[in-house]
Structure formats: structure tokens, C-alpha cells
Write a structure and sequence with these properties.
The complex is a heterodimer.
Chain A: H1 3-23, H2 28-38, H3 43-68, H4 73-96, H5 99-118, E1 128-129, E2 139-142, E3 149-152, H6 157-174, H7 179-188, H8 194-218, H9 224-245, H10 251-272
Antiparallel strand pairs in A: 1-3, 2-3
Helix pairs in contact in A: 1-2, 1-3, 1-9, 2-3, 2-10, 3-8, 3-9, 4-6, 4-8, 5-10, 6-7, 6-8, 7-8
Chain B: H1 3-29, H2 43-51, H3 55-83, H4 87-108
Helix pairs in contact in B: 1-3, 2-3, 3-4
The chains are: A mainly alpha, B mainly alpha.
Chain lengths: 278, 109
């Protein structure tokens, strides 16, 4: 592989890892279109590569968030049953779809999922408590941006479990982490503060992606060199993203990212029909 | 050591080992034709290939360690919930582990 391609892969992985860790989305929504549109990988191979990169994002970003308490371990474990079941179903369905159909599904899903990404998900929707956490699922952490302790109560777990299965399904089908659904879900429905939701999503997506990645790996759809280069880039980017997550405001970044998702989604839909924007 | 620190240590170790193996594999691949798609094989084949300086085998090993990292995280939490007699979360962790192991058995054997 030429050095220039290798550098593109490393940079793409670093960018995907950074945004994935910062926004709790895993980075697959960057890696799959980049692998298909820039590198010309078949979409099934791009999804396999992306799932392994999502595992890397999660594994590299999570340790810091586990130690600081930002990742809610019990909430993450509770939702994992739904996401893993959904991921297995999604990866099996993906294997039955033609390339053009899968590109069409991916492009449409990206454009639609840009909406929850752009929606204003902020701390005012979190169910902040003042009396500390009492329920096993409740969480507590020190907000790095303000230096104050935040305690919150988790609500509507059954709703979260149901929707998490859909997030898992999308993960297995499209090679994304599913955080793009899980983060707004945990914030809007469960009352989890945005930063804790992103950190908890990062905690979960590694196991969710693992379930699907094993299916793609067993089918022999992993391209070694592009995957290795992307994963190495992801390691760097996601560690940086996890550091920035505790001390930054992500609203503007989310909106810019939503616009990019819509454009890339349209590009993927066009590609599925044999057309290109550029 | 708290369960959070043990978890963080397990994941950091997995990331570090995977990183080193993938970097070596990528270095071996420089200037040589792109290796074929990875096909699941026995770990001994992977180790043998690593000994022969085969880039795909080093990358294969790195990706296997990468996949083992979240799997190890599930096992560590399961042990912690069992030790602390936290039965609801122990049950959930066992469920997740069975799904993952079931997938490996169903797809690879």
C-alpha cells in the first residue's frame, strides 16, 4: 500500500476516534463512508473494519472515564443485553443484503440519524439530584468543566432497553457504534447528563461492536492493512477525545457533524444508485 | 484495587498489546503486496506466521487481542458482581457473556 494511502487511513482513524470518543458515537459513521468513498472498499469490508475501529475507540477512551466515574458501569451493563442481541441480528441481516442495498440503507440512516445528533441535548434535560445517588443505576461524577460534583437519577430503564436493541441492530447492520442513538436516549429519556451519557455509550459500544465484529470476522471480511492503519489512528484520536470530553462543550461540534452526516449520507445514497456528487 | 481501576488496567493492557502487534504488522506490510483478507484459523497458525515475519499474521494477532479486550471487560465485571453478591447485575453479565461465547461457538466452530 502506498505511504500516502497509509497516512490517509491513519488520519481518518485519528479523526474518527477523536469525534467518536468526544461525542460517544464510536466513529463508525466516519469510517464506513471514508472507507467506501475514499478507499473504494466494498461496504461489507468497510463495516467489518469500522466495527473493529469502534472496539478500539471504546477500549482506548473508556479507561479514563471508568476511573473518573463519568461512565455509568451499571447502566451500561444493563443496556448491553439489548444492544448485543440487536447487534447480532443486524450483522446477520447485513450478510444477506446486496452491496447497493446496504449502501442505500447506510446513506439513508446517516441522513436520518443526523437529526438526533443536531438536537439540543443539554444538561437541562438531565435529572440532577441534590441528595446523592441511592439507586444502583444512579451516577455521580466531578464535572471537569465546572469542578462541581454532579449526581443524577436514571429513569425509564425499560424504554432505554427497548431502544438500545435498535441501536445494537444499527451497529451490526451498518458498522457504527450505535452511540448516535444511545447518547440522546440516555439524556432525553433517562435523565443522564450529556457527558455521562457519552462516556457510558463509549463503555458499551466496545461489547456491542464485538458481537457484530465476530460475525464479519468469521465470514472472512476483514482487510488486514486498512484495518490496522485505521485502528492505530483511532487509538490516538480516541484517547485525545476522552481527555477533551470532560472539559469541553460539544453543542457546536455536534451541529457541524450533523451537517457533514447529511452530506455524506446523500453521497452514499447516490453511490448506491451508481452516481457521485464529486 | 477498586473494580474501576482493575477494569481500566485490563483495557489499557489490551489496547497497548494490540497497538504494538498492529504497528509491527503494519511495518512488515510496508513495501510488500497487500495481504489477503483475514480468514479465521487456529491461534497456532497465527503464531507460526508471526515467527515467519508475515504481516497479516501480526495484524491478525493484534485484532484478536483487540477483540479480547471488551470480552475481558465483561469477564472482569462478572467476577466483580459475583464477588460482591450483586445478583441482578451478575445475571445480566452472565447473559451478555453467554451471547458472546455463543456467537463465537456458532460462527467459528
Amino acid at each position: 500500500m502506498p505511504l500516502s494511502d497509509l497516512l490517509i487511513l491513519l488520519a481518518t482513524g485519528a479523526g474518527a476516534g477523536f469525534l467518536g470518543a468526544l461525542l460517544g458515537v464510536g466513529g463508525g459513521i466516519i469510517i464506513v463512508p471514508a472507507a467506501v468513498l475514499l478507499l473504494g472498499l466494498p461496504i461489507h469490508h468497510a463495516i467489518a473494519t469500522s466495527l473493529l475501529a469502534v472496539i478500539a475507540t471504546s477500549s482506548a477512551a473508556v479507561p479514563k472515564n471508568i476511573v473518573t466515574g463519568l461512565a455509568n458501569i451499571r447502566l451500561g451493563v444493563s443496556l448491553e443485553i439489548g444492544t448485543v442481541l440487536g447487534a447480532l441480528a443486524g450483522s446477520l441481516i447485513a450478510g444477506m443484503l446486496e452491496v447497493s442495498t446496504l449502501e442505500l440503507v447506510f446513506g439513508t440512516a446517516m441522513a436520518v440519524l443526523a437529526l438526533p445528533m443536531a438536537v439540543r441535548v443539554d444538561e437541562t434535560r438531565a435529572h440532577i439530584t441534590s441528595d446523592g445517588s441511592a439507586h444502583p443505576l444512579d451516577g455521580r461524577y466531578i464535572d471537569g468543566a465546572t469542578g462541581t460534583e454532579v449526581s443524577y437519577h436514571v429513569r425509564r430503564l425499560p424504554v432505554a432497553l427497548s431502544v438500545s436493541s435498535i441501536a445494537g441492530l444499527l451497529s451490526g447492520l451498518l458498522g457504527v457504534g450505535g452511540g448516535i442513538i444511545k447518547v440522546p436516549l440516555m439524556t432525553l429519556a433517562c435523565g443522564v447528563p450529556m457527558k455521562a451519557a457519552a462516556a457510558t455509550s463509549n463503555f458499551m459500544i466496545g461489547v456491542t461492536a464485538l458481537a457484530s465484529a465476530m460475525v464479519f470476522y468469521s465470514r472472512g471480511q476483514v482487510e488486514p492493512v486498512p484495518t490496522a492503519a485505521l485502528v492505530l489512528g483511532v487509538f490516538f484520536g480516541s484517547r485525545l477525545g476522552a481527555k477533551v470530553l470532560g472539559v469541553t462543550h460539544t453543542r457546536t461540534l455536534r451541529r457541524i457533524f450533523a451537517v457533514v452526516m447529511i452530506i455524506v449520507g446523500i453521497q452514499m445514497v447516490l453511490q448506491s444508485q451508481g452516481m457521485r456528487l464529486t | 484495587m477498586s473494580e474501576r481501576r482493575v477494569l481500566a488496567l485490563v483495557m489499557r493492557t489490551g489496547v497497548l498489546v494490540s497497538f504494538v502487534l498492529l504497528a509491527i504488522g503494519l511495518a512488515f506490510s510496508a513495501g510488500s503486496p497487500a495481504p489477503d483478507l483475514l480468514t479465521p484459523g487456529s491461534p497456532m497458525d497465527v503464531v507460526r506466521g508471526m515467527g515467519e515475519g508475515d504481516a497479516a499474521s501480526w495484524i491478525h494477532a493484534g485484532l484478536l487481542v483487540l477483540m479480547l479486550t471488551p470480552f475481558s471487560r465483561v469477564v472482569v465485571l462478572l467476577l466483580y458482581f459475583g464477588k460482591s453478591r450483586d445478583f441482578p447485575f451478575l445475571g445480566v453479565s452472565i447473559g451478555v457473556l453467554l451471547l458472546l461465547v455463543g456467537t463465537v461457538v456458532a460462527r467459528l466452530f
